[in-house]
Design brief:
By secondary structure, the chain is an alpha/beta fold. Among the domains are: 83 residues, no CATH class; 74 residues; 200 residues, Rossmann fold (3-Layer(aba) Sandwich); 213 residues, Rossmann fold (3-Layer(aba) Sandwich). It is 39% helix and 21% strand. It has 32 helices and 33 strands. The strands form 9 sheets. Strands 11-10-14-15-9-16 form a 6-stranded parallel beta sheet, sandwiched between helices. It starts with 5 loop residues before the first strand and ends in a 10-residue tail after the last helix. The structure holds one DNA strand. This is AAA family ATPase. GO terms for molecular function: ATP binding; endonuclease activity; single-stranded DNA helicase activity. Keywords: ATP-binding, Endonuclease, Hydrolase, Nuclease, Nucleotide-binding. InterPro entries: Coronavir_polyprotein_1ab (IPR050534), P-loop_NTPase (IPR027417), RecD2-like_HHH (IPR029493), UvrD-like_helicase_C (IPR027785). It comes from Lacticaseibacillus chiayiensis.
DNA sequence: CAAACTGG
């Protein structure tokens, strides 16, 4: 085999970042070569691209690398491309290169730079000088001690990253070294902590378990090392249990999976034999039913169950129940409205119960009724309602419909994704929901139990009631729990289910088919039928994926020819992004057919090649696009001149309203909104997307993260949207398909539903209801089958106390970072475990002395 | 495998 030529010690200056892959360190930079090698291929301006696992570098940064020529990438970027074989850390030795580095370091302080050049000789090793302690006492004319200190610290950072890189070698990426140094700001401390427990890197450098595990293995950590087991068991529970929607699993299954996935014998998994040890690892065992769950998940589900019980006990009616009917009738008279009995029941539920649910499928008037509820209780209950939703798009729709402010749960509660337990800038005296009397959460089918918990734990049920609105037959959340279903199954939760359909013609085929699925009846056709056509539904049996694809394209073109390029006129719904009938392939093909490139017309072309499709992204005038970001702050463009004209919206908190409730800026552009490309300016590198009647500015640089083609979309993204003609596609090997996903696609239809796919697959998969197979403990806790105090060997108070203790001790890596250096260079988990056990025993002893609350019998 | 959330 031909040996690749390595070009060593090439100094490169970063020009720009061309491609940045999320979730990995793979980057593509355009760079300038500072010390040209005679054999290197390069452009006239000495430019090349470099690719590989690198840290993030700012423009003008200088790096030193060994390079290997990369023929394939050279075709992609129209420049000779090189792979980074090795990065050299630390300070360059030659004075000339040291000066180059300090030039880039001080690019924004030209005066300081000039004074350094004046004071030091050109052949002085400037970085080496600044890395010595003596620099503190040096007197450089015109450069103050604070500035000297700043430069020295920056250089020390570079040196310390080099120390880390030297210590661990190629086992970790340069990005990781930078993150570790930033976390500890002390190389020695970092090495001690990471060597003692490599798995701490999962938090420190946001690496996943598999990456850290490979690193730990290369460092000689044994497969049955306690740190490894602790991290590995949590990882398996998160990836194999919680993402399936489950919140617990059988001990037997978990033990077997853990042994297989971690490559250890079941004898090594000692936590399963000892409830106390399991607790130290963060798990709870229920030996009676052979169940195991994580402490965190149990605390969440248990807290939700408790809060729901409290809600029912402490809530007082918003207005006097005796007056409700009279006031409601007056309200309806004044607005000339009529409601049915189901809808009236919803008013009574909301008025009387701390927690209630409004359930109903598409077209039953949920949104219409929600609007009435908001305005009725706003007028009658002396305190404005707070409107929330799990997604930006749902919040936007709710705000538009009610003409009241609505926000995402995260935006309203000041939560950062992934850190929902704490507000990022909590004000001590801020009562979350102010004097609000009613909190409405729309699209509640998308709520995981942890997200429902973040809402519920902030509610004072003496003041306010909560209403969850949703359609339990839509897609369940991607994440643990089945919150809406559990609410509906619980006798104590006041639920209204709307069944009368107003939107669809009751004779329509779509409605009939949707009802069959809801009622769990067999679909009205066989696996070998050619087609099923009834009313506005047409399903075609097609087994070959290639033909399914072609049929979908053809149906879309026909719908387009009939109805034109109107928003919401036609929509192609798929189950997956990638694959032969995936979203990306459909969009590429539909764009080429529906909106092909025309000579002389401006185009947006991405500067990189999409690693999934192996193509560059193109956007042209009139392309249908979907917006992927929630924005409360949007630059608008004048559609006559295409000049930027105004900025709509502001970030952050609005003023307190007359009821003392904090109000929030609305989401102007939401993830999931669709629009049309209205203008492209290739010279000034921006394009304009028309969404509704607004023209929004997107710089070319923001396009990859902000926009995607929207001819075809996944069924998840289609939730909450409607189209006249819906074309649904099912691939023979579609594991995403189930009754709820098909139901969701079906109920997006306003006039015509067309389906292409294998009837055998459709018939088999629509027998699967995710709602049935998602097991959680919340349902059992609400029904009284389980109680929080008797699920495991520990009472709920003991579990919460233990979690609280763990959060404040060095077990959590974030706390470990701020903690003092460990006494010994390595501190095995076994040693720590006995300490933990002592503390655990103290905790258990202490809390058992507290008055024990019984589950029942207090009232 | 599917997706949601934010701030600077």
């Amino acid at each position: 085999m031909e040996q690749a030529q390595v070009y060593e010690n090439v100094d490169l200056q970063i020009i720009k970042l061309l491609f940045n892959s999320d979730g990995s360190d793979y980057k593509v930079y355009a760079v300038r070569i500072l010390n040209p090698h005679p054999e290197l291929k390069m452009t006239l301006t000495q430019e090349i691209t470099v690719t590989g696992d690198m840290g993030y570098y700012n423009r003008r940064a200088i790096i030193t690398a060994d390079l290997v020529y990369d023929d394939a990438d050279s075709l992609r970027y129209r420049k000779p491309s090189y792979k980074v074989a090795r990065l050299h850390f630390g300070l360059p030795k030659e004075p000339r290169r040291q000066w180059q580095l300090i030039d880039t370091l001080l690019v924004h302080q030209p005066t300081v730079l000039r004074r350094l050049h004046d004071y030091f000789a050109d052949d002085a090793p400037i970085l080496t000088i600044f890395s010595k302690d003596e620099i503190k006492t040096a007197r450089i004319p015109g450069v103050g001690p604070a500035t000297v200190q700043k430069i020295a610290t920056a250089i020390r950072g570079k040196l310390e990253v080099a120390v880390l890189a030297n210590h661990w070698g190629k086992a970790l990426s340069s990005m990781t070294y930078e993150k570790i140094w930033l976390a500890y700001k002390d190389a020695e401390l970092a090495m001690q902590h990471v060597d003692a427990n490599p798995y701490i890197l999962m938090q420190v450098a946001q690496l996943d378990f598999k990456k850290v595990d490979a690193f730990a293995k290369s460092r000689g950590v044994a497969p049955n090392d306690s740190h490894r087991l602790a991290a590995g068991l949590q990882y398996i529970f998160r990836t194999a249990v919680l993402t399936q929607g489950l919140t617990y699993i059988t001990i037997t299954w978990f033990k077997e999976q853990a042994a297989t996935l971690l490559g250890v014998s079941t004898d090594d998994l000692t936590m399963f034999a000892d409830p106390k040890q399991a607790l130290a690892y963060g798990f709870l065992l229920n030996e009676q039913y052979d169940l195991v769950t994580s402490c965190d998940m149990f605390a969440t589900e248990g807290s939700v169950a408790r809060i729901m019980a409290v809600a029912q006990k402490t809530a007082e009616p918003l207005i006097k129940p005796a007056e409700l009917d009279e006031k409601l009738d007056k309200f309806l008279d004044r607005h000339q409205l009529v409601i049915n009995d189901q809808q009236r029941a919803a008013f009574q539920n909301v008025n009387q119960h701390g927690l209630s649910v409004l359930n109903g499928s598409a077209g039953t008037g949920k949104t219409w009724l929600t609007n009435l509820l908001v305005h009725f209780f706003n007028a009658q209950a002396k305190g404005k309602s707070v409107l929330l939703a799990p997604t930006g798009r749902a919040a936007k729709v709710l705000a538009r419909y009610t003409h009241e402010p609505a926000a995402t749960i995260h935006a309203y509660l000041h939560l950062l994704p992934g850190e929902e337990l704490d507000r990022f800038d909590a004000e001590a005296d801020w009562e979350t929901f102010g004097d609000a009397r009613l909190i409405i959460v729309d699209e509640s089918s998308m709520l995981t139990t942890p997200l429902a918990y973040t809402v519920l734990k902030n509610v004072n049920f003496k003041k306010a009631h909560v209403l969850f609105v949703g359609d339990v037959f839509q897609l369940p959340p991607i994440g643990p729990g089945n919150f809406l279903k559990d609410c509906l199954a619980d006798d104590h939760v006041a639920a209204t289910t709307l069944t009368r359909v107003y939107r669809q013609d009751s004779q329509s085929g779509v409605l009939a088919l949707a009802n069959r699925i809801r009622d769990r009846l067999a679909l009205p056709f066989g696996p070998d039928d050619d087609r099923y056509v009834s009313g506005n539904v047409a399903l075609y049996n097609q087994r070959d994926a290639g033909r399914v694809f072609d049929a979908g394209i053809k149906a879309y073109q026909e719908a387009l020819a009939k109805h034109g390029h109107q928003p919401d006129s036609q929509l192609l719904i798929v189950n997956k992004n990638i694959g032969a009938t995936g979203r990306l392939r459909f969009n590429a093909e539909l764009q080429a057919l529906v909106n092909p490139a025309r000579a002389g017309e401006p185009e947006y072309v991405s500067s990189y090649v999409d690693p999934v499709t192996n193509q560059k992204h193109h956007l042209r005038l009139n392309d249908r696009v979907m917006i992927l970001k929630n924005d409360k702050h949007v630059a608008l463009v004048d559609p006559k001149t295409w000049e930027r004209r105004a900025v709509l919206g502001e970030n952050g908190l609005q003023k307190t309203d007359e009821f003392g409730t904090k109000r929030w800026r609305e989401t102007i552009m939401a993830n999931g909104d669709t629009g049309v490309v209205a203008h492209i300016d290739p010279k000034r590198h921006f394009l304009v997307v028309q969404v509704g009647n607004q023209y929004c500015y997107y710089s070319f640089g923001s396009v990859p993260r902000a926009l995607t083609l929207a001819y075809a979309i996944t069924v998840h993204k289609a939730q909450g949207g409607q189209a006249d003609t819906v074309i649904a596609i099912v691939n023979g090997a579609d594991r995403m398909l189930n009754a709820q996903s098909f139901y969701t696609a079906l109920t997006r239809t306003q006039s015509q539903f067309i389906f292409f796919g294998d009837f055998r697959v459709l018939l088999a998969r629509t027998k699967i209801y995710p709602i049935d197979s998602r097991h959680d403990l919340l349902g059992s806790l609400l029904s009284g089958q389980l109680t929080v105090d008797t699920f495991s060997r520990f009472t709920f108070e003991q579990i919460l106390t233990w979690l609280d203790h763990q959060r404040h001790q060095g077990i959590q890596p974030r706390a470990a970072i701020t903690a003092a250096k460990p006494e010994a260079a390595t501190q095995p988990f076994a040693v720590r475990y006995t300490e933990q056990l002592d503390i655990l025993n103290q905790v258990v002893e202490k809390v058992t002395k507290l008055p024990v609350k019984k589950a029942t019998g207090e009232g």
